[in-house]
From TrEMBL, chains A, B:
Matching CDD domains: HTH_ARSR (cd00090)
Lineage start: Bacteria, Pseudomonadati, Bacteroidota, Flavobacteriia, Flavobacteriales
A Pfam family: HTH_20
Name the record gives this protein: Transcriptional regulator
Species the sequence originates in: Flavobacterium frigidimaris
SUPFAM superfamilies per the UniProt record, alphabetical: Winged helix' DNA-binding domain
InterPro entries (alphabetical): ArsR-like_HTH (IPR011991), HTH_ArsR_DNA-bd_dom (IPR001845), HTH_Metal-responsive_Reg (IPR052543), WH-like_DNA-bd_sf (IPR036388), WH_DNA-bd_sf (IPR036390)
Domain HTH arsR-type: 1-92
Amino acid sequence: MEDQFIKTATLIGDATRASILWNLLDGRAFTATELAIAVETSAQNISMHLGKLLEADLICVEKQGRHKYYRFSNKEVAYAVEAMANLIPKPKDPVKKKSEEYPPIKYCRTCYDHLAGKMGVALADSLLEQKIIIEKNGAFEISIDGEKWFSDFGINLEEAQKQKRIFLKPCLDWSERRNHIAGSIGALLLDKMINEDWLRRTKDSRAIAITGKGEKELLKNFKIVV
Amino acid sequence: MEDQFIKTATLIGDATRASILWNLLDGRAFTATELAIAVETSAQNISMHLGKLLEADLICVEKQGRHKYYRFSNKEVAYAVEAMANLIPKPKDPVKKKSEEYPPIKYCRTCYDHLAGKMGVALADSLLEQKIIIEKNGAFEISIDGEKWFSDFGINLEEAQKQKRIFLKPCLDWSERRNHIAGSIGALLLDKMINEDWLRRTKDSRAIAITGKGEKELLKNFKIVV
DNA sequence: TGAATAGTTCAGTCTGTATTTAACTATGAA
DNA sequence: TTCATAGTTAAATACAGACTGAACTATTCA
């Protein structure tokens, strides 16, 4: 058991592979070349590293034509990466100004395709408090009032319900240790906010940037102070 | 943020340091020398690695005379180690025989000075089931019948109560995720079993070996199958 | 006191493994 | 077809960082 743990630890604990995992953290799939660029290494090298991660079943691959898309094998991998990210030493004295206390990524990032982090949790809290969604034995449900709210907000619930994916489900955020909103509703909320230019995906698209407009609207609609 | 993650990952992902973390996983504190033995490396080397783990605040240290006791800094470290252990590839076909699945240290080890691991948990379960101890809002108490039992078993409760240390307290076991019995009672139980030659401390005193006599007595007294 | 044990520091060595160079296959587009 | 792009494999190289040896301080014990 110890040997196996050491193997896993040394597998993750290489700079290039750690960077790969970090880039895969938002749940999307990337091609080998994309990862090579993101990680800043050669194609041959990324190929070798992806091979090792594949062999240990930390990632899986899907072939599409001449492309190969790599993603996490299962959510446990994401948990482990996030749990490790939790160990990053906190800055002792908050020298920085208020909003800059942490880089945006800490406050606002995507988990697969919905909002996670502090922002995702705050959003879930607000929707719960406004009784737009309600908690029912561990699951989230949309209230009667909530249905109207979503329609006003410009989200078509019937459309969402048609999708295969789970409609509304809580997702435990490791950095906050709190539930936020996953499922298609989570994805739709994120999409909507991006379309309304409240939020913008950044270049590497893991972090989410909040626009000036978004700052005002988030405060107005959800009482979220950015 | 990514850089910091890579730093943390490479910190954990060295074979020697991973082994240190693995050994600290049960929550106990170890001296540098004990760790060097457990990890099978030199004193100088362990010192260097402990220094790095200390600097990153993954572990902390308490000085006691000429000894230095190292332990996890916080529960997040244990979470991360466990989350990583979760990624160990599952054996597809369980080829192994029953009792040899894990080395003895996994089943029977001390946590500070009381029994932890599977053995400690099984012992706590048995005492609870026999109503020798009872759980009362998260704490353990000795029942009326229990007082007689302890006296029959050769443990003087009044003596134990005089000691400063907490008399009877649950202690969460990381590998089992279950409470076992700490406090002076836990220590006395361990002492007693060692005196009766049910158990023997091994050389490095982390692991506990069960004697033939112990095997019989544990089954008889606590229905624990070793 | 001195002897033994616990732990650290530092310079030098060594080695595992990541990376590079180079030659390859497979798919898609012109 | 031929060219360009995506990705792999294999051997040669390079290097970060672990480990060793030797010399040190601090504490306990006899």
